[in-house]
Design goal:
The complex is a heterodimer of chains A (119) and B (502).
Chain A lengths: L1 H5 L1 H19 L3 H23 L22 H32 L13
Helix pairs in contact in A: 2-3, 3-4
Chain B lengths: L4 H11 L12 H22 L2 E5 L9 E5 L1 H24 L5 H20 L3 H19 L5 H32 L4 H11 L4 H18 L7 H8 L2 H27 L5 H20 L5 H21 L3 H32 L10 H4 L1 H15 L5 H15 L3 H29 L6 H4 L15 H19 L2 H15 L1 H9 L3
Antiparallel strand pairs in B: 1-2
Helix pairs in contact in B: 1-2, 1-4, 2-3, 3-4, 3-10, 3-13, 3-19, 3-20, 4-5, 4-10, 5-6, 5-10, 6-8, 6-9, 7-21, 8-10, 9-10, 9-12, 10-12, 10-13, 11-12, 11-17, 12-13, 13-15, 13-16, 13-19, 13-20, 15-17, 15-19, 16-19
Classes of the chains: A mainly alpha (119), B mainly alpha (502).
C-alpha cells in the first residue's frame, strides 16, 4: 500500500501511456486512434511533471520571505511540458484535418477498409 | 558576422515570408537555401580548426542554457541539407504548380529548418523540438497532393511518427530524472561517470532508439516509409529520402556514441542495420508496378547499410557511414527528381512504361543511370568509394559476426544491381511500346524529344556532376568527413569543448 501511494503518479502516467498504446493498436476507427495518441501525449506530459514534483512543494519563486529552496518544485519540466502540449495540439489538429480529408475520399474512417497501399 | 545561428534563423524567417508573397513564393526557398549554402561553406574552415559553440538564452555557461554546437559533423550535415535543399527547391519552381503553392514553400522551409536544427543543437530537448518541426511539416507535405494515397500514407506516417516522438520524450524524461540536466555534453559526462550501470539508462536508450528509429525507418519501424515516399510529390520524396531519414540516423548515432558511448551495444545496432538492409533490398526487388516505391524500399536498404556501418564502431566504420550518408543523399534525391518528370511525361509509375525512354528523354535517362550506378557502387561514381570503405572497415574490425555481415552487404549489392539494372535496361535496351498506348495525352509523336524544363534539369545535372566528381576525386569531401568521424568518436573531447572541464 505504501508502494502504491508513493508511486501513484508514476503508475498513473504509465497507465495512461499503456491505455493509449492499446487504443492505437486495437481500435479500428481513425478518430479513436487519434484519441489514443492524445492519451499517450498526456501520459508523457504527466510523467515529465512528476519527475520535477515534490510532495507539498512550493512554486519556484521567492514570493515571500522564509521560503525554503529545498522545497521548491523543479520548474524546467513544467517549461518542457508547456512546449510539448503545444506540439501535441498541433499534431492533433493536423491529424483531425487529415481525417476529415480522408473521410471525403473514402467515405469511412474504418482503418481496416482504408488500405489501398500495400507492398 | 558569421554565426551558425543564422543557419536556423534564415530558413525559419523566410518560411513565413512565403505566404505574404503569393506569386513570388516559389523564389523564397532557393534564396534562403542559397544563403545557407554559402554560409555553411564559409563556416567550414573555421569549424575545422575549432568547433563553434553558440550560447542561447541569457549567456549562462553551457550546462544551464541551450547551446548550438557547430562541430565538423554538424556543419557537414548542415552543408548537405542546404545543398540538397537548394537544388530541390530550384526543381520545385517548375514542378510544383497545383494546389496551395505558397503553403508548400512555407512547409518546405520549415522542414529544412528542423533538419538543420537537429544537426546543430547541443541540447537534447531542443533536438526533440526541432525533430517535431521536421516531422509535422513532413506529415503535411506528404499529403500535399490531396489525393487518396497521399492522405492515407500521411495518416499512417502521422500515427507512427507521433508515437515515436512520444517515446523520445519518455527517454528524455528518464534522463532528466536521473541527472537533472538536458545538455547533451553534461548528460554524457554524467553517464561516463556512472559507466552505464543503472537499468534506467538501458530503458532510456531503448526508448531513444525506438523513437528515432521510426523517423530513420530501421527495420521493424519502417512501414510508413514506402507509402509516404511513393505518394508524396517527387520533390518531397527527394527531400524525405535525402534529408529527413538521415536526421533520424544522425540522432541514433549521436545518442549511442556521444550520450551513452554504448560500445558493447554496437553489435546490436549492426545487426538491425543488416536486417534493415536485407529487408529493404529484397522488397525493392519485388516492386515492378511503382518506380517510386522501388526507390523508397531502396532507401530503407541504404539506411540499413549506414546503420550497419555505424555499428562497426571503429573510426573507419564511422567514416564509411558518413561518406555513404552523403553519397546516398545526393544519389537518392537525384533519382527521385529524375523519376519525377519521367513519371509526369509517361503518365504512369509502372516500370514497363519507361521502356525506350532513353531516346525521348536522353539527359534525364543519363542522370538517372548515373544515380543508379552510384547507389549500386560501380567504380567511377561516388557510391563505390563509400561502399568499399564500409566493407574494408568491416573486415578490418576483426570480428567474425561483422565479417559475416560484410558478406551479406555484398550479397545485398547484387540484389541492388538486379533491380537498378532492370530499370536501366528498360530505359535503353527496349523498344518503346506502340505510340497509341504510350501517348495518351494530345497525341504527341513518340520520336519527339520531351526533356524536362530547364529549371528542373539544372539541379539534376549538378547532382550528377557532384556524384561523378566525388567518385573521381574523393578528397573533395573526405577531409571534412574525416574530422566529423573523429569528432563523433571523441566523446571526451566533445564534453571538454562544451563544458570546459577535464
Amino acid at each position: 500500500m505504501n508502494f502504491l501511494s508513493n508511486n501513484i503518479y508514476y503508475i498513473g502516467c504509465f497507465g495512461l501511456i499503456f491505455i493509449g498504446l492499446y487504443i492505437v493498436l486495437t481500435k479500428k476507427n481513425l478518430i479513436k486512434v487519434i484519441i489514443g495518441i492524445n492519451f499517450i501525449d498526456t501520459g508523457v506530459n504527466l510523467f515529465l511533471i512528476t519527475i520535477g514534483y515534490i510532495r507539498g512543494g512550493t512554486a519556484p519563486i521567492f514570493s515571500r520571505p522564509g521560503l525554503n529552496p529545498e522545497r521548491m518544485v523543479d520548474p524546467i519540466p513544467q517549461a518542457l511540458v508547456l512546449t510539448t502540449i503545444v506540439i501535441g495540439v498541433s499534431v492533433l489538429a493536423l491529424a483531425l484535418s487529415l481525417a476529415i480529408r480522408l473521410y471525403h475520399h473514402y467515405g469511412t474512417l474504418n482503418l481496416r477498409k482504408i488500405r489501398e497501399l500495400k507492398w | 558576422m558569421l554565426s551558425p545561428v543564422l543557419l536556423i534563423a534564415i530558413p525559419l524567417g523566410f518560411s513565413f515570408l512565403a505566404p505574404l508573397l503569393k506569386k513570388g513564393a516559389k523564389y523564397i526557398p532557393p534564396i534562403a537555401m542559397l544563403f545557407n549554402l554559402i554560409l555553411s561553406i564559409l563556416l567550414v574552415p573555421q569549424v575545422m580548426r575549432k568547433p563553434i559553440i553558440v550560447l542561447l538564452g541569457g549567456g549562462w555557461p553551457p550546462p544551464f542554457c541551450i547551446n548550438l554546437v557547430a562541430s565538423p559533423l554538424g556543419i557537414l550535415l548542415a552543408l548537405l541539407i542546404s545543398l540538397v535543399g537548394f537544388l530541390v527547391s530550384i526543381y520545385a519552381i517548375a514542378y510544383i504548380k497545383e494546389g496551395a503553392t505558397e503553403k508548400y514553400h512555407t512547409l518546405y522551409l520549415l522542414l529544412l529548418t528542423g533538419a538543420t536544427g537537429i544537426v546543430l543543437t547541443g541540447d537534447i530537448f531542443n533536438l526533440f523540438v526541432f525533430f517535431e518541426i521536421l516531422c509535422i511539416s513532413s506529415y503535411a507535405l506528404v499529403a500535399y497532393n490531396g489525393d487518396k494515397h497521399g492522405l492515407e500514407s500521411a495518416v499512417k506516417y502521422l500515427i507512427q511518427g507521433s508515437i515515436g516522438s512520444s517515446f523520445i520524450l519518455i527517454g528524455i524524461a528518464l534522463l532528466y530524472g536521473l541527472f537533472g540536466t538536458l545538455n547533451m555534453a553534461d548528460i554524457a559526462n554524467n553517464i561516463s561517470y556512472h559507466s552505464l550501470q543503472s537499468p534506467t539508462l538501458y530503458v532510456a536508450l531503448a526508448f531513444f532508439i525506438t523513437g528515432f528509429g521510426v523517423e530513420g525507418a530501421i527495420f521493424p519501424l519502417n512501414a510508413w516509409l514506402p507509402d509516404a515516399h511513393s505518394s508524396a510529390p517527387s520533390t518531397i520524396s527527394a527531400i524525405l529520402s535525402g534529408i529527413a531519414i538521415k536526421t533520424g540516423v544522425y540522432a541514433i548515432a549521436r545518442v549511442t556514441y556521444t550520450l551513452f558511448s554504448a560500445k558493447g551495444f554496437m553489435i546490436f545496432i549492426a545487426t538491425i542495420g543488416i536486417i534493415t538492409l536485407l529487408i529493404g533490398e529484397m522488397s525493392a526487388l519485388g516492386q515492378k508496378k511503382d518506380i517510386k516505391r522501388m526507390l523508397a524500399y531502396s532507401s530503407i536498404g541504404q539506411i540499413g547499410l549506414i546503420i550497419f556501418a555505424f555499428g562497426i564502431a571503429t573510426y573507419y566504420g564511422i567514416f564509411g557511414a558518413l561518406f555513404q550518408l552523403v553519397n546516398h543523399a545526393l544519389a537518392k534525391s537525384l533519382l527521385f527528381l529524375a523519376s519525377g518528370y519521367m513519371i509526369y511525361r509517361v503518365g504512369s509509375k509502372e516500370l514497363s512504361a519507361f521502356e525506350g525512354l532513353g531516346k525521348k528523354m536522353p539527359l534525364s535517362s543519363l542522370v538517372f543511370t548515373i544515380g543508379a550506378f552510384s547507389l549500386i557502387g560501380l567504380p567511377p561514381f561516388a557510391g563505390f568509394m563509400s561502399k568499399i570503405s564500409i566493407i574494408s572497415a568491416g573486415i578490418k574490425a576483426n570480428n567474425t559476426a561483422l565479417f559475416v555481415f560484410v558478406i551479406i552487404v555484398l550479397f545485398a549489392t547484387i540484389i541492388e544491381g538486379c533491380y537498378f539494372f532492370r530499370v536501366v535496361q528498360n530505359l535503353y535496351f527496349k523498344k518503346s511500346r506502340d505510340p497509341a498506348h504510350n501517348c495518351v495525352r494530345d497525341g504527341c509523336p513518340t520520336t519527339q524529344k520531351s526533356e524536362m524544363p530547364i529549371s528542373a534539369l539544372i539541379p539534376i545535372i549538378i547532382l550528377a556532376l557532384l556524384i561523378v566528381a566525388i567518385g573521381i576525386y574523393p578528397r573533395l569531401v573526405t577531409g571534412i568527413i574525416e574530422s566529423a568521424a573523429i569528432g563523433l568518436m571523441d566523446k571526451v573531447g566533445y564534453i571538454h569543448q562544451i563544458l570546459g572541464i577535464f
